[in-house]
């Protein structure tokens, strides 16, 4: 079994401040590195702070393949829309190999089971609400072991 490189979690990105917003929602992912090997399970927490809203938050995760960081993000999974995943991820989402576990209104985890070499790249947690069309995000990077 080939090993994946360390899971490196980057510093959270600066929050996006929507025009007219009453509060600043800050999305955070952990700092790394975390280490995993191919075939294992990893979860990446995504937490929201400084959010004074009461609406149920929507968590979405997107992915940019390693080596194509300027590429177009690929939809992976969402807490709101079962049709959100890109066709490349739908089989793994339907099989329960990729999912979001909601811990609270403002905290959720992306789970990737049975890690594959193709899982290497940058993951972005986007958080919004039905009442607020804009979202804030933070990014993490998963690197493979050679």
TrEMBL record:
Recorded superkingdom: Eukaryota
Any one annotated GO CC term: membrane
Keyword Transmembrane helix: yes
Statement: the UniProt record of this protein carries the keyword Cell division: no
Any matching Pfam family: V-set
Membrane topology of the entry: Single-pass membrane protein
The species this protein was found in: Chiloscyllium punctatum (Brownbanded bambooshark)
Keywords associated with the record: Disulfide bond, Immunoglobulin domain, Membrane, Repeat, Signal, Transmembrane, Transmembrane helix
Transmembrane intervals: none
Cross-referenced SMART domains: IG (SM00409)
Protein name in UniProt: Ig-like domain-containing protein
Main location: membrane
Compartment(s) of residence: Membrane
Ig-like domain ranges (all copies): 12-141
């Amino acid at each position: 079994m080939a090993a994946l490189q360390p899971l490196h979690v980057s510093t959270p990105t600066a929050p996006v401040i929507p025009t007219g917003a009453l509060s600043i929602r800050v999305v955070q992912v952990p700092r790394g590195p975390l280490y995993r090997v191919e075939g294992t399970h990893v979860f990446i927490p995504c937490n929201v702070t400084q959010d004074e809203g009461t609406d149920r938050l929507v968590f979405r995760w997107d992915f940019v393949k390693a080596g194509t960081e300027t590429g177009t993000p690929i939809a992976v999974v969402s807490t709101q829309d079962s049709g959100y995943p890109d066709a490349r991820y739908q089989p793994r989402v339907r099989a329960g190999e990729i999912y979001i576990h909601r811990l609270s209104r403002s905290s959720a985890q992306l789970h990737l089971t049975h890690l594959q070499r193709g899982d290497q790249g940058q993951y972005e947690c986007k958080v919004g609400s039905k009442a607020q069309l804009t979202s804030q995000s933070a990014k993490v990077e998963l690197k493979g072991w050679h």
